Each structure stands twice: as structure tokens, then as C-alpha cells.
Amino acid sequence: MTKELEHILKKYHFESLPGVFDGRRNRMLEIPGRRGEVFPELFTALGYTRGVEVGVEQAVFAKTLCQGIKTLNVLYGVDAWKAYSGYREHVSQEKLDGFYDDVLKKMKHEPFIPIRKFSHEAAEEFADGSLDFVYIDGNHEFFEVTRDLHVKIKKIRKGGIVAGHDFRRNSGKYVNDVKDVIPAYMYAKQIPIWFVVREKQSASSWFFVKE
Q1: How many angstroms separate the first and last alpha carbons of the chain?
Q2: Rounded-to-integer distance, Cα 199 and Cα 205, Å
Q3: Which helix (H) or strand (E) holds 112?
Q4: Distances in Å between the alpha carbon of 48 and those of 17, 66, 70, 115?
Q5: Does pLDDT of 23 surpass 70?
Q6: Euclidean distance between CA atoms 4 and 14, whole angstroms
Q7: How far is CA 163 from the centre of its chain?
Q8: Which of 161, 191, 196, 192 is nearest to 179 (CA)?
Q9: What is the pairing mode between strands 27-32 and 74-78?
Q10: Going by C-beta distance under 8 Å and a sequence separation of 6 or more, which residues neighbour residue 131?
């Protein structure tokens, strides 16, 4: 067990749960609270300095991370800001270009570097094990969520955090397979303990510590 995982278990008072330190596999624990408070506070406590957000759009959460993580040196914002079949039919390219321009202005004075590429392409920008955390909030289709996990986990150091948004299933309006992918991934890769930040049913986050 990494010191980071041990810190989290103690911080949220999970150490009193039977067997929580015995290496039991695929155990999900819930943390109440808002992602905009839980993650900045946690990343600061762990001394994280370098991270990535996948799926920036208008940089609402990126701004929260940059201003909330007191130890942060740089946050890379990965987003293609591109309309494409199967994901962005509901948003025009003109609107996405406007989002990108707004992000550049909004984040001008933050420790933020935008990378305008698709997630799997942007992975080449980072050495394996070079990042403290990644927060995945891009395309929520089954294959894309799985690929983001497969590609991004290599870039996170031991003791770093892999996290993401929208831990829920398809509502019928937009494709969302996150709640199906994440438990399956945790089971398949034998992640011993993982967490859900239960902000609200429609927008909870998930995360685990890389061992």
C-alpha cells in the first residue's frame, strides 16, 4: 500500500473499516463532498505539482484545480476542441473554437498549459510516470473511457491518482458508459481500493491511487 493511499484511508476515516488494510481486492469506498473541494484539498495534502485534465471544454474545473491546489506547478489541459461524429454533433465547431479562445483568456494567469489534441495523441507529450494526477472528463463512450484509462495510467507515477467525472450510466440523451467501464477496469486490473466522490448522482467522480 502506498503512503498516498494510506493517507486517504486515514483522512476520510476508513481505517476503522474491517479489513481495509489487508489487501482485499476491488473495494469501492464513497467520499461525500464536492469534487471542487475534495480534489484540490487532497492533491494539496499529497504535495502534487503536475497534472492533466482530459476534457477541458470551458475550463470550469481546470480553473478550480489551478486555484485550489496550493502545491501545483502546472496543469495541462487536453482537449481537441473539435466537433466530430459520435460525440460533438450537438456543438458546432464555431462554438468550440470560441470555447478555446475563451479558455486562453480565462487561464492566462494560471499555471495552465492547453494541449489542443485528442487524448490518445496528447499522451505522447508526457513521459511514463511523469505526472502526479490525471482527471478524465472527455468522451464517455465505452471504448474512449477504456482507452483513456489504458493510455493515461502509464503516465502517472506510483502514488499518483487516476480520476474522472460522470460516474453514471447513459441517460439516453448523451452516451455515458463510465459507470460500466470503471468497476470492470478495477476488477480486471485488481485495483485493491477505489473511491467515488458522491457529489450528486448525476455528476459523481471516481478515483484510485496507482500502486
Answers
A1: 7
A2: 7
A3: strand 112-115
A4: 27, 12, 9, 20
A5: no
A6: 14
A7: 3
A8: 196
A9: unpaired
A10: 50, 51, 52, 155, 156, 157, 160
Amino acid, single-letter form, for residue 58: Q
State the chain's mean pLDDT as an integer: 92
Q: Could you identify the residue written with the cell 474545473?
A: 61
Quick one: which of 112, 115, 82 has its CA closest to 97? 82
Question: What H or E segment, with its residue span, contains residue 53?
Answer: strand 50-54
Angle between helices 3-11 and 35-45 (to 10 degrees): 130
Element (H, E) at 114: strand 112-115
Contacts of 133 (CB under 8 A, 6+ apart): 43, 48, 51, 52, 156, 160, 161, 162, 163
Rounded to an integer, what distance in angstroms lies between the CA atom of residue 186 and that of residue 24? 12
Select from 53, 49, 82, 50 the least CA-distant residue to 164: 53
Handedness of CA 35, 165, 58, 127 (dihedral sign): positive
Residue 194 has a pLDDT of 95
Instruction: Give residue 105's Cα distance to chain centre.
Output: 23
User: What is the number of helices (H) and of strands (E) in the chain?
Assistant: 7, 8
Per DSSP, helices labelled H in the chain are 3-11, 35-45, 60-68, 93-106, 119-122, 142-152, 178-188
The per-residue pLDDT for range 128-167, each reduced to its tens digit, is: 999 999 999 999 999 999 999 999 999 999 999 999 999 9
Answer yes or no: are the C-beta atoms of 152 and 159 closer than 8 Å. Answer: no
